[in-house]
Amino acid sequence: MVMLGIIGKTRLCLSNDTSIDHIQRTGMDIQAHGGGGLYGQTDNVFYKFVILHAERDIQEAMRIKNMLEEEFQIKPGIIFDDMPAGQHIMKALDNAINGSAWTILLLTENFLKEAWCEFQSHATLMNSINMHHKYNTVIPVRPKKNFLPREKTPFILRLINALEEGRPAFIQQVHKTFQEEMYQKQHSIWRAERSFRQAVF
């Protein structure tokens, strides 16, 4: 089995014969039926960041989230595991990416072991290319322990400057990356899009 992803503590698995391309072509109905995430419904919250992570890295994702919120005052943030349960997984990913200012890809050794992580990285990068206001909002992060070495990192992600927790310049990089002006700009666009959808539907 290949771990596809998790929402609300519910694991979503695919057989090795089920590819990401198959999911895209057929619109496979994959849902999570577990309890709600830590934050409950996220529809009314625009997060500063969302962390996309491997299933084995939930605790590490929480550690990074807490560090950014508590030490750098970059909040609110959320990890993908805490997205509301019961959503189609593709919808949950869309909400995660477009409902936050920055998308963090947690690059650990586990990242390459899950097909879902590969798809997440492709989806976020395509989103940043296709949507002008999302340019430069995808942030690969290598944690101190069990990080994915640069030589093992997919080529397309090597083109993006990663935040590396073990580097002396990490603190300065974080402050430089998460700019309040960028957050406010994206928050305004998000509010305008929500108002438009509510008026239409």
Q: Care to describe what's here?
A:
- The longest helix has 21 residues, at 180-200.
- The chain has a five-stranded parallel sheet with strand order 4-3-5-6-7, sandwiched between helices.
- It has one domain (42-200): Toll/interleukin-1 receptor homology (TIR) domain (Rossmann fold, 3-Layer(aba) Sandwich), CATH 3.40.50.
- Helices cover 40% and strands 17% of the residues.
- It contains seven helices and seven strands.
- The protein has helices spanning 20-26, 58-71, 89-98, 115-130, 155-158, 170-177, 180-200; strands at residues 2-7, 10-14, 47-52, 77-79, 100-106, 138-142, 163-164.
- It is of the alpha/beta class and 201 residues long.
Number of strands: 7
CATH-level-4 superfamily name: Toll/interleukin-1 receptor homology (TIR) domain
Helical segment tally?
7
Q: Name the helicity range.
A: 25-40%
Task: Give the strand content.
Answer: 15-25%
Radius of gyration: 16 Å
What is the topology, as strand order, of the major beta sheet?
A: 4-3-5-6-7
Rounded mean pLDDT score: 80
Fold-level CATH name: Rossmann fold
InterPro entries: TCAM1/2, TIR_dom, Toll_tir_struct_dom_sf
Organism: Leptobrachium leishanense (Leishan spiny toad)
Keywords: Cell membrane, Cell projection, Cytoplasm, Endoplasmic reticulum, Endosome, Golgi apparatus, Immunity, Inflammatory response, Innate immunity, Lipoprotein, Membrane, Myristate, Phosphoprotein
Pfam family, one: TIR_2
